[in-house]
Amino acid sequence: MAVPALMRSESGPVSDELTPVQKAAIIMMIFGEETAAQILHSLSPSEVQALGEAMFSVQNVRHETVDAVLTEFLSAVSGQTGLGVGAAPFVRRVLTDALGTHKAQSVLSRIAPANTEKAIEILDWMDAPAIAELILDEHPQIIALVVALLDYSQGAEVLKRLPEEVQPEIIKRIATLNTVQPEALRELEEVMRAKFKANTSLRASQIGGVKAAARIMNFTRQDMEQRIMKDIRKEDKDLMEDIQDNLFVFDYLIKSDDRSLQTVLREVDNDVLVLALKGASAPLRDKLLGCMSQRAAANVVDEMEAMGPVRLSRVQEAQKTVITVARRLSDAGQITLAGRGGEQML
Fold it and tell me: For residue 93, what pLDDT is reported?
C-alpha cells in the first residue's frame, strides 16, 4: 500500500480521512512491538498483511491525527465495555510503557477530555508536577482529597513534590478518610471549578482510608516513607501501625519473576530466609525454593523441618527483613516492586 498523498501533506490527515485499518495500525504502533506482535499472532494472514501495509502508510502521521485516533479509540472502548470510569490511569500506564514518560505526557495533555462531568477527573490527565503546583496552596484536607482520588502511583508522585513538612499530614488525613460526603467533595469541586472553569454533579464517594494511604506510601522511596511514618507516629501511633500493616507485604512476592527473586534471595541471610519461609504459604514457599539451586533448596527445607515450631513474631520479623531488602533493591533501581511503581511485581 503506497503512502497516501494526504499523509505527506503539510497539514496532515485528520482521523476521518483514515481507513479503519490505518487507525488500528496507529493504535498498535502506540502500544509497542511486544503488544503488536501478540495481536498479529492471533490474526489471519490476510489481516496481518493488511495491518502491515497500513503501518507503513501511517509511519509519518502527524501528532494531531494520533490524538484524534486515540480519542476515538478510547471513546469506543468506553462505550462498548463501560470502562470509562478510571480509564485515565490505564491510558497513562499504556502510553507511558509505549512512549516513555515525557512523550506520553505530551499526548495525554492533548487528548484530555475537555468536557468531563467532574472537574477533578481532569487531574488524571495531568502530570504530577502540574498537580502539585495546582494544589500546593490549598488546605491540607483539600490536598489529601486530591491525592487520594488519584491513581496510587500518580498520588505518590504528587506527594513527593509537596513540601516535606506537609507530607506526613497529608498521609495522616488520607489514612483517616472514610466515606466522603457530598459537602466535602463539593468544596473540592469548587476549588477545581475555579481552576478549570468546569461544572459538575456530586455524590457521596468512598475514597481514602488506611489501605489507600499505605498503597500511596508503597510507591515512595523507603527513606521518605520512614520520615513520614516517624512524624505520624508522634501524633498517632495506632494510625502509624495501621498504615505500616498495610504496606507492601511478604505474600506479594508470589507474583515476582524468578530473576528478580533470585536477586533478592542473594541478599538475604540463610537463617532469615528459613524463618521467613516457615510462615509462608505453600505456593510462595515453592516459588522461592524454585529460585534456588536444588541443593540450596533442600538445605533450607531440612533446616525448616529441624527447627520445629517458632513464634509468629519471629517469622514476621524475618519476612519484614526480606521485604526491607527487596525495597532497598527497588530504591536502588535494581528491581521494581509492583504496588510501589507498577503492575509488575518485582
Answer: 65
For the chain, which domains are there? 5-111 (no CATH), 119-245 (1.10.220.30), 250-331 (1.10.220.30)
Q: Between 5 and 156, whose confidence is greater?
A: 156
Q: Where are the alpha helices (DSSP H) in the chain?
A: 5-8, 20-31, 33-41, 45-57, 63-81, 87-99, 101-111, 128-135, 140-149, 152-160, 167-175, 182-196, 210-218, 222-235, 237-245, 258-266, 270-278, 282-290, 294-307, 312-331
Residue 340 has pLDDT above 80, yes or no: no
Q: What is the CB neighbour count within 10 angstroms for residue 279?
A: 16
Cα 248 to chain centroid distance, Å, stands at: 14
User: What pTM does this model have?
Assistant: 0.45
pLDDT (tens digit per residue) in 162-219: 999 999 999 999 998 876 766 777 777 777 767 655 333 333 444 578 877 887 887 7
Residues 6+ apart with CB under 8 A from 308: none
Cα distances from 95 to residues 86, 108, 205, 261, 337, in angstroms, run 15, 8, 28, 28, 20
Strand partners, 345: 256
**CA 267 – CA 260 distance, rounded (Å):** 11
Please give the residue that has the higher pLDDT: either 162 or 152.
Answer: 162
d(CA 228, CA 310): 33
Bridge partners of residue 206, in order along the sequence = 179
Answer positive or negative: Cα dihedral of 9, 14, 15, 19: negative
Residues 6+ apart with CB under 8 A from 338: 252, 255, 344, 345, 346
What the block records as the C-alpha cell of 278 is 516457615
